[in-house]
Amino acid sequence: MRTVILAEVEVVATTAERRRLLWLLYFAAVRRITRMGSMQPQLSWPFEGEVFPRDLLAIIQRTVSAGEFPALTVIHDDEGDWLVSDGVHDPNGASASSVLHLQHVVDLDPSLAQLATMPPGYVAWRATASDAWVIEGWTYADD
After folding, report:
1. Which of 9, 68, 121, 124 has the smallest number of Cβ neighbours within 10 A?
2. Region 48-60: what's the mean pLDDT?
3. Burial level of 51, CB count in 10 A (0-12/13-18/19+)?
4. Dist. CA 35–CA 20, nearest whole Å
5. Phi and psi of 64, rounded to 5°?
6. pLDDT confidence of residue 39
7. Cross-sheet strand order for the sheet of 82-85
């Protein structure tokens, strides 16, 4: 396992690179939390009708669930869990994220519905809410 301390390291990077580093740290922390297995073992992928089940849970950054910022990063991890972030704010703060039904953010941003077919082990990201989703393979930094 790798430990990274941002406060003691001066990193010269673009905004996008800094954002990606924050999310790597965030998702590594989430990975440790969810090591006991998926939050919803009763749901299997692919989803029926290629739509998100209404009772699907996800770890969602509060800025996204409150509608303050759009979802810019969505991960479907290799254990079947879904993670949604704004890609801007530090997700490591106290109460920065919570477990909610994914449908809540799909209702706020219907473009997320097209990600229901994204297989485990992939990430979807975009620079702004009006951009198309880019889907790539994903693994946690500590794997």
Report:
1. 9
2. 90
3. middle
4. 22
5. -80, -50
6. 55
7. 97-101, 57-61, 82-85, 73-76, 122-125, 134-137
pTM tops 0.90, yes or no = no
**DSSP string for residues in 2-67:** ----GGG------HHHHHHHHHHHHHHHHHHHTTT--S-TT--SSPGGGS--TT-EEEEEHHHHTT
* Cβ atoms of 86 and 70 closer than 8 Å: yes
For residue 82, give both structure tokens.
């879904």
Query: What is the Cα–Cα distance from 19 to 110, expressed in whole angstroms?
Result: 24
Name, in order, each residue with C-beta under 8 angstroms of 97's C-beta and a sequence gap of 6 or more. 30, 59, 60, 61, 62, 85, 91
Cβ proximity of 79 and 30 under 8 Å: no
What is the distance between the alpha carbons of residues 110 and 114, in angstroms, rounded to a whole number? 8
77: Cβ–Cβ under 8 A, 6 or more apart, which residues?
27, 31, 34, 83, 120, 121, 138, 140
State pLDDT tens for residues 21-50. 555 555 555 554 444 445 565 777 788 899
CB atoms within 10 A of CB 17: 11
Look at residue 79 and tell me whether its pLDDT is greater than 70: yes
